[in-house]
Design a protein that fits this description.
The complex is a heterodimer of chains A (about 110) and B (about 775). With about 110 residues, chain A is mainly α. Chain A has three helices and no strands. With about 775 residues, chain B is mainly alpha-helical. Chain B is built from 33 helices and four strands.
Chain lengths: ~110, ~775
């Protein structure tokens, strides 16, 4: 199972990296979203999968899945969400102001 | 003693006050007090030092680092201190008459006093870090003084050049100091000299010697660093007389003399020091003949005379060291007066070009007399002091030549250098004061300057004559202690005689005078050979080219990497990460693969995995915005299903909600965004990006597999699972971790979310307001 997940993570990161290097701002934002999915799955995988019950204490259960990565990912999801929404609004107002979302045209000053 | 060093610095505080408030009196008169008082104080210490006493004073500065402002006065230091304060007084006196009241005198005297402190600090410090501090202060104040007339391009160029070259050497010297510290564990020069046997055995001995010599050579304008000195002649003439003939350029000589007992034991000491000195002597005097500017001649002559002193230090025999110290003293006297003479000529005729000058003898008899004595002293003609020290130079070279194979070359080369010295000295005198007067070339009718301007050069001339006639006056009180301080061997005062029989030195002097006269008389016939000199031999071209080249290279390097395109930067970052981590993975052999501890795979999980892979691969190919959003959303929802499968209910819930909100956001935003065009760009660019991204993916997979296959420690989750209820009173372990065990994270994550919200709000609001303004 872990090996399968690692392959999934690899594919997600490949796609995300490819998207982040594209010219269009919208694609870049989607790339960051896919990045966070990949990384969340990676954190999950690295703590070994499916080694017990969900981490809610129940009588009679001795083995639980590792709760720490779950807490970490929960934090990360919320932060990722904040950043993504900020990026979206940034792209929106950038397009309103500059009239383009092409990264090659957003080069700033010509001669620095 | 520290007070003596810092006195000029403290006095700078009063200079602006006096300059602004006391308009009636030239501010130089107040400044004059400082060097005169210092000179008297050092003179009063002289008998003590001559008797072999050493004055040592300690003042804590940074004791924890072993850096203390310790002053140490021995024969060598006091010789330099007397030159610095003595010539300093004369130069200040001269400058009072030389500089017009319309100049920025406040600045001038502050810089000059700063320099005086720096120079006294260099020669009196026992601690090498303190010495280095003052050393750089001399570079800095020299920079300020050269650029005194900062409106002129040439002044600024000369100031920059001298700063770059001397600071380059200064930093090399600092490295040498640090090496010495690592060998001996102390910054104190006396203690280092005390452990010279230990230093000599160290592996860092040679590097430290080369670095310190590099600093000394660049400061003392030795080949090939001599090029800054002629350009420093843009400074006001009193500055040239003081800094660039008597004091600062001798700081390097002081350093070499100071470390002579430590390094002279090495086989390389003689070839490096004397070799560079010889090269400088010959090259400097050769180039001096070519100059047409009075100060240009004097600059190259200084270069070559410093070379002469350094040759003698390279011999490091008692006789040679005595000659070096003697010539050091003599050079300060005659070069100072020569510069002042040049300044007077410039001041009274309006030009320093020897092609326009001539026949000034009858108009400026006193100046001409000064010039006569000083140039003949420089040429080494009896009965002036230059003759005595040059004679000793020849004697020392003959003596040292006896110990070498091919030794006869040494006196021969020394004679060669001295012949050119003779030639330019003669040119200096005869072309300015003899020959025809070209009145129409001059801005004003020349005449002797005001008396005040003549006082300083006349005093120096009197010194030249006195030392020339009665050299033994300074032999016992000044020379012997200085030589003893350099060699660390007790010395008997040397009897300096005018005539010690018919021997080699005398014959060499005669050769110099005979050949020199011959060359001088026929100079018209061979002067054109200077025009055939290849340009690269002057070294100025190299300096200019390397500065320009450095500028060009850095600019183009910046152009290449700083393209301004975010995508290129990302590509560089990714490639760097890949090469670094991948290389490490490969070279440290840390890749591991084990299948021993894997969870079983169910068919639905395979389906999920295939689904997420398919969705991910589709995204880059899409061009419809809504399809892109939905496909990305599909990835998110499959991740939710994974979380369910991996027994993470809270994660699944949160992810579900967040994914939905994100989708809504995307759908809200996308109608305002332009259509997403098909990804433009060449095939090769796409291929490059594909290559980079798949290597990143592959790298993560490899690292993940290795990390998964090697678990070094058991996780700490057991603690949380065990104590979730009894310590925190909660059943849901993940939530207990979030709000209890690791509540801080959650607090700051709330902060992140608030900041994002505020940011979004203000971004929208502020943008609108700005548009309203427009």
């Amino acid at each position: 199972m872990e090996l399968l997940m690692i392959v999934v993570v690899g594919v997600l990161l490949t796609v995300a990296t490819y998207l982040v290097m594209s010219r269009n701002l919208f694609r870049i934002i989607l790339g960051t979203v896919i990045y966070s999915h990949g990384v969340h799955l990676l954190i999950m995988t690295m703590s070994k999968l499916k080694r017990g019950a969900p981490p809610v204490i129940t009588d009679g259960v001795t083995a639980y899945t590792d709760p720490i990565p779950q807490a970490l990912i929960l934090t990360s999801i919320v932060i990722g969400f904040g950043v993504t929404s900020y990026l979206l609004v940034l792209a929106y107002s950038m397009h309103k102001k500059l009239g383009t979302d092409d990264m090659d045209e957003l080069r700033g000053v010509k001669d620095e | 003693m520290q007070l003596l060093v810092l006195a000029p610095l403290l006095f700078t505080l009063f200079v602006p006050l006096l300059y602004r408030r006391v308009k009636a009196i030239h501010v130089g008169w107040f400044v004059l007090l400082v060097p005169v008082l210092l000179f008297v104080s050092f003179l009063r210490l002289l008998p003590q030092v001559a008797n072999g006493e050493r004055v040592l004073q300690d003042l804590s500065w940074i004791p924890s680092l072993g850096v203390n402002f310790t002053t140490y006065l021995d024969g060598l230091s006091i010789l330099f201190a007397l030159i610095i304060t003595g010539i300093g007084s004369l130069v200040v006196l001269y400058s009072i008459y030389y500089l017009n009241r319309s100049e920025q005198l406040g600045h001038f005297y502050i810089y000059l006093l700063l320099f005086m402190t720096a120079m006294l600090g260099v020669v009196l410090s026992d601690n090498m870090i303190v010495l280095y501090t003052f050393w750089e202060l001399t570079s800095l104040s020299s920079f300020l003084l050269i650029g005194f007339w900062y409106q002129r391009d040439k002044s600024r160029f000369g100031a920059q050049k001298s700063l770059l070259l001397t600071v380059f050497g200064g930093l090399a010297m600092l490295a040498g100091i640090v090496l010495l510290y690592t060998i001996t564990g102390t910054f104190s020069i006396r203690e280092i000299l005390g452990q010279k046997d230990m230093v000599a055995e160290s592996a860092l001995f040679l590097p430290s010697m080369l670095l310190i010599l590099l600093g000394a050579f660049s400061k003392s304008a030795q080949f090939p660093f001599h090029i800054w000195l002629p350009d420093a002649m843009e400074a006001p003439t009193p500055v040239s007389a003081y800094l660039h003939s008597a004091t600062m350029v001798k700081a390097g000589i002081y350093l070499i003399a100071r470390f002579l007992p430590l390094y002279a034991v090495h086989d390389w000491w003689f070839p490096i020091v004397s070799g560079i000195g010889l090269l400088t002597l010959i090259w400097g005097s050769f180039l001096a003949v070519k100059q047409t500017d009075l100060k240009g001649i004097l600059a190259y002559s200084t270069v070559s005379q410093l070379g002469l002193i350094i040759i003698l230090l390279g011999f490091s025999t008692p006789l040679a060291v005595t000659a070096a110290v003697f010539h050091l003293f003599n050079h300060a006297a005659f070069k100072g007066s020569l510069f002042m003479m040049a300044g007077i000529v410039d001041h009274e005729t309006g030009t320093r070009d020897i092609r326009r000058l001539g026949g000034l003898f009858s108009f400026m008899p006193i100046t001409a007399t000064v010039g006569f004595i000083a140039t003949f002293a420089m040429a080494g003609i009896p009965p002036f002091n230059g003759f005595l020290s040059k004679e000793m130079f020849f004697a020392a070279s003959v003596e040292y030549a006896g110990t070498l194979n091919w030794g006869f070359l040494l006196p021969a080369l020394a004679v060669l250098g001295s012949i050119f010295t003779f030639v330019y000295s003669m040119m200096l005198f005869f072309k300015v004061f003899r020959g025809e007067l070209q009145l129409e070339q001059l801005e004003q009718k020349p005449h002797d300057p005001p008396k005040g301007m003549l006082i300083s050069p006349l005093i120096l001339v009197v010194i030249i004559l006195t030392i020339g006639l009665f050299p033994n006056l300074i032999s016992a009180p000044i020379l012997a202690p200085a030589v003893e301080a350099i060699t660390l061997i007790p010395q008997e005062p040397v009897e300096i005689e005018h005539f010690h029989g018919f021997n080699w030195p005398l014959a060499m002097t005669l050769i110099v005078i005979a050949v020199g006269t011959l060359i001088y008389l026929s100079y018209r016939k061979w002067l054109h050979i200077y025009n055939h000199l290849p340009e690269f031999l002057t070294w100025n071209g190299w300096y200019d080219r390397s500065l320009r080249g450095l500028d060009r290279i850095t600019t183009s390097l910046t152009r290449i990497q700083m393209t301004g395109s975010l995508r290129n930067y990302l590509a560089i970052i990714f490639i760097f990460i890949f090469v670094l981590s991948g290389g490490l993975l490969l070279t440290t052999d840390s890749f591991a693969f084990s299948t021993s501890d894997l969870a079983p795979v169910g068919w639905y999980e395979v389906l999920l995995a295939l689904g997420v892979i398919a969705a991910a691969i589709t995204v880059p190919f899409l061009t419809s915005r809504i399809a892109m959003v939905l496909t990305t959303g599909a990835i998110g929802y499959i991740v939710v299903l994974f979380f369910v499968d991996f027994r993470a209910p809270d994660l699944a819930l949160t992810q579900l909600v967040v994914e939905t909100i994100s989708m809504v956001l995307f759908l809200l935003a996308f109608v305002h965004l332009p259509r997403v065009p098909k990804e433009k760009g060449s095939k090769s660019l796409k291929l490059r990006n594909l290559l980079i991204s798949s290597s990143v993916g592959l790298l993560v997979m490899l690292i993940a597999i290795s990390a998964h296959s090697t678990r070094l420690f058991t996780p700490i989750s057991e603690y949380f699972i065990k104590h979730s209820y009894d310590l925190a009173g909660g059943h849901n372990i993940v939530n207990v971790i979030l709000v209890d065990f690791r509540g801080f994270d959650t607090m700051l994550e709330i902060l992140v979310l608030s900041i994002a919200g505020l940011g979004i709000y203000s971004m929208i609001k502020l943008r609108n307001r700005k548009e309203d303004d427009v």
